[in-house]
Design brief:
Elements (H helix, E strand, L loop, with lengths): L9 E7 L1 H4 L10 H10 L4 E5 L2 H7 L3 E4 L14 E4 L3 H11 L3 E5 L16 H16 L7 E5 L26 H17 L5 E2 L2 E2 L6 H10 L5 E4 L3 H10 L9 H16 L1 H22 L3 E3 L2 E2 L13 H15 L4 E4 L10 H4 L2 H12 L6
Parallel strand pairs: 1-2, 1-12, 2-5, 5-6, 6-7, 8-9, 9-11, 10-12
Antiparallel strand pairs: 3-4
Helix pairs in contact: 3-5, 5-6, 6-7, 8-9, 10-11, 11-13
Length: about 375
């Protein structure tokens, strides 16, 4: 499926590495048929997943011991776990295809005990592992279900891309000269083998591209995938105010979310909503300047949340609805998510089927980029 063939924006969700790692009893993805049927029932028709390209490139059918990237979040596994990528990946894509669900491929480069990501020493290495992954999918004639390919989640954050080293005088930013060169080189290399796939590198927020890079990015990328949150708008003001700092392995962060997040938002929701809308508007301006469509799979209110004592989902759904409605009205998106939490492990969010159906109807009734 090519982006240009879409007849309406897609309602997309992020199932990251959870689709494969959260398969123990009660984790949400132990029954893919059930999870996907419930996804369709809620109105979604696209999903973004971790395809584990490095592991597939080394040994597609090996078993790997995954090390947790956190124990405070409900994405993925909170403890050591075992996974086998193939044939599970192709089985999952086939089940998506049977339901008319398109698949966005990405990777968080999950750490495993048996190898490390340091072997990705160049854009060519980065491209090669993705070629091996696409070869693996193509071997089962499943490429038609691939919506797009995101080379690395939230490039080039060191938690996801520790192998990327910018020039000594540069920051490790998406828009740095070293980053632009890496992204362009890797995309162009992979496009030689798979010219019909849509390519991107996802990012947080807006790009702040230098004018001299506009032409290069516009001609190389097929889409932009910004991740947009109220909590990060205006230089992370909301998270600064509630004293949350993405704590991965200790509970202090969530203790502060319990104490502060809902009350800060509800005390001045218009203020926070307007910051989110302004953030969305900035991204749209960049999209128009580059003449590239947008896909957003991580959004709109708070970044990190879960089912937990004294955490309520209603204010989260309300803030996410603001983002969905504002983005849908801009006409720049090829696919829009409803939140970070549209998966069966987030039971408090997942069970509100009516809310999901209302939001996905808004998304799928919006205009596509001209």
């Amino acid at each position: 499926m090519k982006l240009k063939e879409l007849i309406e924006p897609l309602a997309i969700t992020m199932w990251d590495f959870s689709w494969l790692e959260r398969r123990w009893s009660g984790a949400g993805y132990e029954d893919w048929d059930l999870a996907l049927d419930e996804l369709v029932e809620r109105g979604y028709n696209a999903v973004r997943i971790d395809a584990y390209p490095l592991l597939v490139s080394i040994d597609a059918k090996a078993e790997w011991t995954v090390k947790p990237c956190w124990n405070q979040q409900d994405w993925g596994s909170p403890a050591r776990n075992r996974v086998q990528v193939q044939p599970n990946l192709n089985t999952f894509i086939r089940k998506c295809a049977e339901r008319g669900i398109l698949v966005g491929l990405s990777t968080w480069f999950q750490r495993v005990e048996e190898t490390n990501v340091a072997q990705i020493v160049s854009p060519q290495c980065h491209s090669r592992i993705w070629k091996d992954l696409l070869d693996s999918i193509a071997s089962d004639n499943l490429l038609d279900s691939v919506l797009y390919l995101d080379f690395c989640n939230e490039w080039p954050l060191d938690c996801w891309a520790p192998f990327f080293l910018p020039a000594p005088t540069e920051k490790a930013d998406w828009n740095s000269p070293s980053s632009i060169r890496w992204m362009v080189s890797s995309i162009n290399e992979l496009r030689l083998s798979y010219p019909n796939i849509a390519y991107t590198y996802s990012n947080i927020g807006h790009l702040n591209l230098a004018k001299e890079d506009h032409k290069t990015v516009s001609e190389t990328f097929d889409l932009l995938e910004p991740h947009i949150w109220m909590a990060q708008a205006n230089r992370h003001e909301f998270y600064t105010r509630i004293d949350y700092h993405y704590e991965r392995f200790e509970s202090k962060g969530y203790e502060n979310v319990v104490l502060n997040a809902q009350r800060f938002y509800e005390a001045d929701s218009d203020y926070w909503d307007n910051h989110l809308k302004a953030h969305i508007d900035e991204v749209c301006i960049e999209s128009e300047a580059l003449n590239l469509p947008l896909i957003t799979t991580e959004c709109w209110g708070i970044v990190d949340y879960k089912d937990w004592p004294m955490l309520d989902w209603e204010w989260v759904k309300r803030s996410c609805e603001v983002g969905v409605r504002h983005a849908a009205g801009k006409g720049r998106w090829a696919a829009i998510a409803t939140s970070n939490f549209c998966g069966p492990q987030f039971r408090g969010m997942w069970r509100d089927k009516d809310w999901h159906q209302e939001m996905t109807q808004i998304i799928r009734s919006a205009k596509l980029p001209g």
